[in-house]
Structure prediction request, 297 residues.
Amino acid sequence: MNVGFIGIGQMGAPMSRHLLEAGYDLTVHDLRKDAAKHLLDKGAKWADTPKAVAETCDVVISCLPTPIQVQEVVYGTHGLMAGWKTGDIYVDMSTNSPTVIRQVAKDAKAKGVAVLDAPVTGGTRGAQEGTLSIMVGGDKIFLEKIREILQAMGKKIFHVGDVGCGNVAKLVNNLISLTNNTINAQAFVLGVKAGIDPQVLWEITTSGTANNWNLQQYPQTVFQGNFEPGFRLSLGFKDIGLAIQLGREYGVPLSVGAAVEQSLLEAKAAGFEDKSVDGFILYLEKLVGVEVRSAKK
Prediction:
């Protein structure tokens, strides 16, 4: 099967590599051709435009940073819409707006193209190891047609409903995760400022009711001062904004999420947007004059 992949970034690069290693005939596209060099060296084909990807591939996958970029890839002058053929399947694995992907699905259907939204969770490590969890929205018939493709990139595949529901699930996940990340940072800065050793505080909190996935990463991230971006703070801010927007659309008050959005905006404005989302704590440390670090490896 000819598979196209658009968006060879921190997530897309290892995800597309798994497809190539699984034996798929892979065609790739990115704004920067050099981002795909490692794939081209291993036998992937290059396409100059999304249109060219669609013209030569039965299944096209995109993994892009924002809804705006998804719209550009689909609707641009040389976008997918101009190259789609009846029977094609488009799988958007970006964290996207459910409203945007539902409109894409409606427009694609008129050309005989099926659309699935399939955002992922598991971070860059999951992408590298091929252990992502994938949340799929859309007709289950088409999910089954491309299940083996998804299994090359992830261990758990969930069918969550109609198209758009994949991103609803992802935004709910990130709303919870980003809220945990923010309150972890605030709580640890408070504890250290008030005199508690961060390692002791971590052992207490991870042994009790405060334990959460984000907190479990502290020994490898915050405690070591490791804030190199896997998931950038700027993307976290984008995702929380999409969740807040979804809440407005459905009339669901998200007051805690709004507070998290404001906190991430402050950190972004202070110049930490290109740090990992864990780097939010750097903003708080700078404000109050402490560092949450531990010498224990």
User: Anything to note?
Assistant: The mean pLDDT is 97.
